[in-house]
């Protein structure tokens, strides 16, 4: 068998009404999810929302209190991790400090009784995948954090897992390295066409690399969808606030006018929203705007300007102690009077 040949099974994961209690703590409350084969699926949410518990339940490190987990048609709920063909990458790398890189990566293949020449070739294949050649003899302490995590990824890949599970693998690395390594992880997942479940609390990371994202809070899944959908059409206020920058204005919808306190009105493109009290949600880039009198929309004055490189971010005072965050390539100066129209919005009813 050539090392590039694999017995990997294309795998989907079905999570059915899973609950996990730690004593009185409900870490997962009735979570159901379908993760498709070859998909890069991210569990995203704040600290303590249950994403690691869900990932560890998929792996079998945690026993669920209720519910079932399937890999394809197989019910894996009670199968321990060592009897599943999974690769798991931990936040803290979890390399054996007293074993060389070679021995660290070889371990899973030795357990599977592969012969020495296959192991040697497969390790060099795995190190090629993570772009780390010729470091087989080094020990973990001789490597940087980024290199150690790439060794951990090679160790997870070398056994040809059906599914790759990654628990905040980049959170101990500096910002620049995080960005390059997350792209490398995504490229590896694409080239191997392997199903991956990735845990992070970093929304930017999730938006950049995922096919789909599940946003979690307090043990529940609030929304599942592709990055654009989660960003542009969040299902509730928590998701809208957790992902990216946003404007939230409290008011009342009458026809296509959103009325703010102090007789201020934001005209909206009509869409199917419930009339009455609500919170108008917009992204900072969801406005058309102009200094031209007669442009229409709501009037505002630029009170702060932040330079973002290719973009400008402005704080626009719209009166009555309310302001809007605007992002655009357009140049305005502090003090400029502009008019704004909303091009994309949601209204969350209270
Ligand atoms: N072994 C455990 N014993 C008791 N409580 C636990 C255990 N593991 C997790 N919890 C609790 O379950 C809840 C969910 O934890 P979990 O680690 O899954 O969250 P998380 O979203 O991954 O957070 P983080 O990003 O901080 O790791 C938390 O309230 C946590 O304190």
From TrEMBL:
Its EC number is 3.6.3.30. InterPro entries: AAA+_ATPase, ABC_SmlMolc_Importer, ABC_transporter-like_ATP-bd, ABC_transporter-like_CS, Mo/tungstate-bd_C_term_dom, P-loop_NTPase. SMART domains: AAA. One of its GO terms (molecular function) is ATP hydrolysis activity. SUPFAM superfamilies: MOP-like, P-loop containing nucleoside triphosphate hydrolases. The keyword Membrane does not apply. Residues 13-243 form the ABC transporter domain. It comes from the Bacteria. The keyword ATP-binding applies. Keywords: ATP-binding, Hydrolase, Nucleotide-binding, Transport. One of its GO terms (biological process) is quaternary ammonium group transport. This is ABC transporter related protein. The lineage of its organism: Bacteria, Pseudomonadati, Spirochaetota, Spirochaetia, Spirochaetales.
């Amino acid at each position: 068998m050539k090392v590039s040949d694999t017995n990997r099974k294309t795998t989907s994961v079905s999570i059915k009404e899973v609950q996990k209690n730690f004593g009185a703590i409900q870490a997962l409350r009735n979570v159901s999810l379908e993760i498709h084969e070859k998909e890069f699926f991210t569990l995203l949410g704040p600290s303590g929302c249950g994403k690691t518990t869900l990932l560890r339940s998929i792996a079998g490190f945690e026993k669920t209190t209720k519910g079932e987990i399937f890999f394809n048609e197989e019910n894996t709920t009670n199968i321990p991790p060592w009897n599943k063909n999974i690769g798991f990458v931990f936040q803290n790398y979890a390399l054996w400090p007293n074993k060389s890189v070679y021995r660290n990566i070889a371990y899973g293949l030795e357990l599977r009784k592969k012969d020495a020449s296959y192991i040697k070739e497969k390790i060099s294949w795995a190190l090629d995948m993570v772009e780390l050649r010729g470091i087989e003899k080094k020990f973990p302490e001789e490597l940087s954090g980024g290199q150690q995590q790439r060794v951990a990824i090679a160790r997870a890949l070398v056994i040809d897992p059906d599914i790759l599970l990654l628990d905040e693998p980049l959170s101990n690395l500096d910002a620049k390295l995080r960005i390059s390594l997350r792209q490398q992880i995504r490229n590896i997942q694409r080239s191997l066409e392997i199903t991956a479940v990735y845990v992070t609390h970093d929304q930017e990371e999730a938006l950049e690399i995922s096919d789909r994202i599940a946003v979690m809070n307090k043990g529940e899944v609030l929304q599942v969808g592709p990055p654009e959908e989660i960003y542009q059409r969040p299902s509730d206020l928590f998701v809208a606030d957790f992902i990216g920058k946003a404007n939230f204005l409290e008011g009342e919808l009458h026809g296509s006018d959103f009325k703010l306190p102090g007789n201020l009105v934001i005209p909206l493109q009509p869409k199917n929203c419930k009339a009455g009290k609500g919170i108008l949600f917009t992204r900072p880039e969801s406005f058309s705007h102009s200094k031209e009198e007669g442009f229409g929309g709501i009037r505002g004055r630029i009170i702060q300007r932040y330079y973002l490189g290719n973009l400008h971010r402005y704080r626009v005072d719209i009166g009555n102690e309310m302001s809007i965050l605007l992002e655009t390539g357009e140049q305005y100066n502090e003090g400029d009077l502009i008019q704004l129209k909303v091009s994309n919005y949601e209204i969350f009813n209270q």
